[in-house]
Amino acid sequence: MSRVVVVTGTSTGIGKTVATAALAARALAAGESVVVVKPVQTGIADGDSDAAEVHRLTGCAVQEHTALDEPLAPDTAARRAGVRIPTVAEHADRVRVLTEFHDTVLVEGAGGLLVRLDTEGGTLLDLAAELARSVPTEVVVVAAAGLGTLNHTELTVGALRARGLEPAGLVVGSWPVAPGLAERCNAEDLPRVTGVPVLATLPAGAGALDRETFLARSVTWFA
C-alpha cells in the first residue's frame, strides 16, 4: 500500500533536505517508486531549491508546488509578494493523487512543524493531520545534534501527539566529525526523553556528496 512520509524539523537549517534525500534513497534501495514533494519553497531569489537538491542527491522524481523569492516563512513571503499560494487542503489533494502512482510520497516541510504554509494559517502539522485521515501517513522529525535539541525535539513531538500523530522516528540531521559531550549525551537522551526511536544519524557534509556516493552510503546511516 502507498504511504506518505512527512518530513519536518525542529527548526530551519538542521539538515531536513538531506534527511529527506536519505529517506528517499532508502526507499529507492528497497525497490519502491518514490516522489518527493516540496509544497512551498522560499528563497528562490537566492538560488534555493530543496527539491532540486534532493533530485541531485538521489535522482528520484521531485515536485515543487509553490516558489517564492524571499527566504522567509511561506505565508510572510507570499503576503510580501502579494500572491496567493495554495492552501493546506489543496496541497493534501495533490499529495493524495501522487499516492495513486507511487509507493512512497515524501513531503518536506518548510522550517519547523508550525511554520505557516499558506496565508490562511495552515501548517505542516495541519497538512500531516489532513493526509492521515485518508492515506497511511508517517511523520519523521529531523533534529539537531547539539545543545537545545532535547527541548526543541520534545516540543515538536508533543505537538504531533496532541494532534493524534505518533512520530515514526527521529533523524539526526548533521552529526559532527568530532562530537562533543553535548552531542554524545543527546544521542542517548533523544530517544529516552521523547519515546521516539532514532532512525538515522547523518554525517556532517553528507549533502556535499555526489549522487553515486550518497546513494551507496545513505543506507548505512539508518539504525
Secondary structure layout:
Layout: E1 3-9, H1 16-29, E2 34-42, H2 50-58, E3 61-68, H3 74-81, H4 88-98, E4 104-112, H5 124-132, E5 137-143, H6 149-162, E6 169-175, H7 181-194, E7 198-203, H8 211-218
Parallel strand pairs: 1-4, 1-5, 2-3, 2-4, 5-6, 6-7
Helix pairs in contact: 1-2, 4-5, 6-7
List keywords for this structure.
223 residues, alpha/beta, seven-stranded parallel β-sheet, 8 helices, 24% strand
Short précis:
It is built from eight helices and seven strands. It has helices spanning 16-29, 50-58, 74-81, 88-98, 124-132, 149-162, 181-194, 211-218, and strands at 3-9, 34-42, 61-68, 104-112, 137-143, 169-175, 198-203.
Question: What does this entry look like structurally?
Answer:
Strand 2 (34-42), helix 2 (50-58) and strand 3 (61-68) form a beta-alpha-beta unit. The protein is an alpha/beta fold and 223 residues long. It has helices at 16-29, 50-58, 74-81, 88-98, 124-132, 149-162, 181-194, 211-218, and strands at 3-9, 34-42, 61-68, 104-112, 137-143, 169-175, 198-203. It is built from 8 helices and 7 strands. The chain has a 7-stranded parallel β-sheet with strand order 3-2-4-1-5-6-7, sandwiched between helices. The radius of gyration is 16 Å and the shape is globular. Helix 1 (16-29) packs parallel to helix 2. It comes from Nocardioides koreensis. ATP binds at residues 13-18, 50, 108-111, 173-174, 203-205. Pathway: Cofactor biosynthesis; biotin biosynthesis; biotin from 7,8-diaminononanoate: step 1/2. Catalyzes a mechanistically unusual reaction, the ATP-dependent insertion of CO2 between the N7 and N8 nitrogen atoms of 7,8-diaminopelargonic acid (DAPA, also called 7,8-diammoniononanoate) to form a ureido ring. This is ATP-dependent dethiobiotin synthetase BioD.
